[in-house]
Design a protein that fits this description.
Number of domains of chain B: 1
Largest sheet of chain A: 6 strands, mixed
Oligomer: heterodimer
Strand content of chain B: under 5%
Largest interface: A-B, 37 and 36 residues
Helix content of chain B: over 70%
Structural class of chain B: mainly alpha
Strand order of the largest sheet of chain A: 6-7-8-3-9-10
CATH class of the largest domain in chain A: Alpha Beta
Strand content of chain A: 15-25%
Radius of gyration of chain A: 25 Å
Number of domains of chain A: 2
Distance between the termini of chain B: 20 Å
CATH superfamily of the largest domain in chain A: P-loop containing nucleotide triphosphate hydrolases
Shape of chain B: globular
Radius of gyration of chain B: 21 Å
Number of strands of chain A: 20
CATH architecture of the largest domain in chain A: 3-Layer(aba) Sandwich
Order of helices and strands of chain B: HHHHHHHEEHHHHHHH
Structural class of chain A: alpha/beta
Number of helices of chain B: 14
Number of helices of chain A: 18
Number of strands of chain B: 2
CATH topology of the largest domain in chain A: Rossmann fold
Strand order of the largest sheet of chain B: 1-2
Helix content of chain A: 25-40%
Distance between the termini of chain A: 36 Å
CATH architecture of chain B: Orthogonal Bundle
Shape of chain A: globular
């Protein structure tokens, strides 16, 4: 067991202003699932992109079976038996499964240089059969489910002889059933002697799949531990560099009147919820697996997702046909889960991003109909101070800010107006532990001042530590409503599946 | 819209270094300062008349029409689309105003200013109607701006040709040309005054109104704008209508200058205005663009055409040069965007 398939020593990589990897050692054995665990920005993605040949290291060596490797490209690494499945797929969506499986390695007729379609088709079918993937090779990739696309991606990675497979957050957007399918694939590859590097945020998956775990923090290897015997608290502590209790504040529960009341909510996105309440002065967690409808329910209420039927009441007032504008005017703020996609104007300045939803409001908006740029400067500077964004960052383009600071900008946007209800959808995705804790303290402040807070999250520790009450969703319905006295990990998990 | 500091030096080199300065200027202003310097040097070497006061005033007066159309184009670009029909809008405004003035002169032969006013309103109305259709197609039906405005370009051009049977409409009231074509007030040509007026209005609208900021937001990230309570569709529609209005004003001024309503006016305006915007640093991805730079971009194109005329470069070759400039500007814009925003 001791002889390594892949052994990495002293790997370092620097980007302008950031040391992404700092002398990292790593070892992978044949037939092992080795998890890499760490915060975003800890260096996980840099590490795997170097192993996969997408980037070159500044220092350090990579050996496979004791032989030193240097890759010039991803396809070079693939030829040497290392393949990666990244979160962003490398599939051409409008081509069929078999066309994708042969992409870049098309078989050509020797004399005419034309495609040998039947040979390619046979090759693709054989590949899928070998992996026990039940996917019709003639289907167009865009019509496949996310999990099926991932299976095609894995099959593509396995079309050459493979010794190392890298999976980057493979379950991030899979349903629970789809994840099971993936896990059994991983197990069968493991039996064939493939070494698997598995990147995930989810401790449950590490417990189920992994043999060993390497924890990264700030570009350094913090330690390698045995997956089966290491406790969850220990892993989080290694990842965050501080004890769990220091990350999460204690939020005083002071539930007041009903702020948001949803009833008979039905949407095209398979949501079917009869009753949902959020009160002032409490944090309501909404938990569940990806695809359970937890985000869709509140996006419907905010007027982003289509709503077939349902009643949205805010402070006792029914809001007919919610739109983001109406909801904001009524005092609801929604923080989207993907800040680059739905949150930020990346090319605009930080100050412009903060003030975006307050341009039609006092004091930035004069009664004359024009903007007061000086009032705007004051507002954004004050908010910058509250969410801890340095004044020198205010005129800079948000694209240049770190993920944590970008998230603070979005939180800042929620402080420009009078808000009764905050809906935070995955508020700590992709931020470092310092920002994460700062965000939690901000949530505490807002809640204790009397606002209602809804916290939608796939991060179970976050839900358990922050919520006064938790709605658990499963397949678009509320499976349980658990209050703090009964709130334990076991109680929550029992309703997950 | 507060401007964005490029912040390129990460504290390493504090000493004066020419390449750093060039990079800083490039990141802040785009490629235009460099093109401008190169063009001025080349043309003053090729023709001694180029750098004379007369020629420069002439250059400004000639640039008015393109400056206005580019201003409209900028609105469409900031919103995240573009408008290929600006040339057609110029033509339609010209033809419709000229035809209305002709018809109205028969009914009210003595009320010349009434005829001119109504004629201009008719031209502007027709222009804004095209803008409204463009905006509705893009915002309500999700047609890509490329197809929508390309289609409208063909429709508008066809209608303008149909209305005039391809023959320019003449016999316009003399006062139109005397005032809006060649008039001078306080020593400044009236077309330039009109341009300055519109520039001032647009500057306030873009920088000191919620509408302007919302336009930038919609172009920058429409989803973020929607979640921030901005009514995205009305903003888009109004951008195209305003674009058409400004192009329409340009069409009226050209009609006054040429004393005819001509369906062939503005034929090269779409290309030239997009070139002026891109050279002036407006992003083709939307959300970025500053009025003062676009004005300079349009004047730069006028300058190149003026310089090539003086240097006796034929008009066919001028078209080639314009295309080359457009592509160079886009290439440098891509490089700049990458450096600035790491997109």
């Amino acid at each position: 067991m001791s002889d390594a398939l892949l052994s990495i020593e002293g790997l370092s990589k620097e980007f302008p202003g950031v040391r992404a990897l700092d002398g990292v050692d790593f070892e992978l054995r044949a037939g092992e699932v080795h998890a890499i665990f760490g915060e975003n920005g800890a260096g996980k993605s840099t590490l795997i992109s170097i192993i996969a040949g997408a980037q070159a290291q500044d220092r350090g060596t990579i050996r496979m079976h004791g032989e030193e490797l240097r890759f010039s490209s991803v396809s070079d690494a693939r030829r040497q038996g290392i393949s990666a499945v990244f979160q962003e797929f490398s599939l051409a969506p409008h081509l069929t499964v078999e066309e994708n499986l042969c992409l870049g390695e098309e078989r050509l007729h020797q004399r005419f240089g034309l495609l040998q379609l039947s040979a390619m088709s046979r090759h693709a079918s054989a590949l899928l059969r070998r992996l026990n993937f039940e996917i019709d090779p003639h289907r167009v990739v865009a019509t496949l489910s996310r999990a099926e696309q991932q299976m095609v991606e894995i099959a593509k990675a396995l079309r050459a002889k493979l010794s190392v497979l890298i999976l980057d957050e493979p379950t991030a957007s899979l349903t629970e059933k789809e994840s099971e399918q993936l896990f059994s694939t991983v197990r069968s590859l493991k039996q064939q002697g493939v070494g698997i590097i598995y990147i995930t945020h989810r401790i449950q998956e590490i417990k189920r799949l992994a043999d060993r775990v390497t924890v990264l923090r700030d570009g350094k290897n913090i330690g390698v531990v045995d997956a089966a015997t290491t406790t969850e608290a220990k892993l989080i502590e290694m990842m965050a560099g501080r004890a769990v209790e220091k990350i999460y504040p204690t939020i005083a529960a002071n539930p007041g009147r009903n702020i948001l009341q949803l009833s008979q909510m039905r949407g095209s996105a398979d949501v079917d919820v009869d009753h949902f309440v959020a009160r002032g002065g409490e944090v309501v967690g909404v938990a569940g697996l990806v695809g359970c409808g937890k985000s869709e329910l509140l996006r419907m209420a905010f007027g982003i997702e289509p709503m077939k039927s349902g009643v949205v009441k805010l402070d006792g007032q029914t809001i007919k046909k919610p739109t983001p504008r109406r909801m904001l005017d009524a005092g609801v703020f929604y923080l989207p889960p993907d800040r680059r996609e739905e949150g930020l104007m990346l090319s605009a300045s930080t100050a412009d991003n903060i003030s975006l939803n307050a341009l039609t409001q006092q004091p930035i908006h004069f009664r004359s109909g024009f903007l007061s740029l000086s009032a705007e400067r004051t507002v954004t500077r004050d908010i910058g101070r509250r969410v801890d964004i340095h004044p020198s960052n205010l005129p800079r383009a948000t694209a240049l800010l770190s993920g944590g600071n970008q998230q603070k900008v979005l939180f800042g946007r929620g402080l420009t107006r009078t808000i009764k209800l905050y809906i935070f959808d995955e508020p700590t995705v992709g931020v470092d532990v310092g920002t994460r804790s700062a965000i939690y303290y901000l949530i505490k402040e807002l809640c204790e001042k009397g606002a209602a807070v809804i916290l939608i999250s796939s991060d179970l520790p976050e839900i358990l530590h922050m919520s006064h009450r938790v709605y658990l969703m499963r397949s678009g319905r509320i499976a349980a409503d658990i209050d703090r006295s009964r709130l334990t990990e076991a109680a929550v998990l029992q309703h997950f599946f | 819209m507060s401007s964005i500091d490029p912040e390129i030096n990460s504290g390493s080199a504090r000493r004066f270094s020419p390449s750093d300065w060039i990079m800083k200027i490039f990141l802040h202003w785009g490629v235009m300062p460099f093109l401008l310097v190169i063009a001025v040097i080349i043309f003053s070497l090729m023709s001694s008349r180029f750098l004379t006061a007369d020629n420069l005033i002439n250059l400004f007066r000639q640039s008015v029409y393109l400056v206005l159309v580019s201003l409209g184009q900028m609105l469409a670009l900031i919103s995240g689309g573009f408008d290929l029909s600006v040339g057609t809008i110029v033509a339609v405004a010209s033809v419709v105003s000229a035809l209305s003035m002709g018809a109205l002169t028969l009914s009210f032969p003595d009320a010349m200013w009434l005829v001119i006013t109504l004629g201009c309103l008719a031209g502007l109305g027709a222009a804004m109607l095209i803008g409204l259709v463009n905006g509705a197609g893009v915002a309500m039906f999700g047609v890509s701006p490329f197809i929508m405005t390309l289609g409208m370009q063909s429709i508008g051009f066809g209608i303008a040709l149909f209305l005039t049977a391809g023959v320019p409409v003449s016999n316009l009231p003399d006062a139109l040309g005397d005032v809006f074509g060649f008039g001078v007030v306080l020593g400044i040509p009236v077309p330039i005054l009109m341009m300055v007026l519109i520039l001032a209005l647009m500057y306030v609208l873009l920088n000191y109104s919620a509408w302007g900021r919302h336009l930038y937001a919609v172009g920058s990230n429409p989803k973020a704008a929607l979640l921030s309570g901005i009514r995205v569709k009305p903003v888009l529609v109004s951008a195209y209508v305003l674009c058409a209005f400004i192009a329409g004003v340009s069409g009226l001024l050209l009609t006054a200058r040429t004393a005819s309503g001509d369906a062939n006016l503005g034929g090269s305006m779409a290309l030239e205005s997009i070139a002026a915007c891109v050279i002036g640093g407006v992003s083709l991805r939307g959300g970025i663009g500053r009025l003062e730079n676009v004005v300079l971009g349009a004047i730069f194109i006028g300058l190149v055409q003026n310089g090539m005329n003086l240097a006796q470069i034929g008009s066919y070759l001028q078209i080639v040069v314009l295309g080359v400039l457009l592509i160079i500007a886009v290439v440098f814009d891509r490089i700049r965007q990458k450096r600035l925003y790491r997109l």
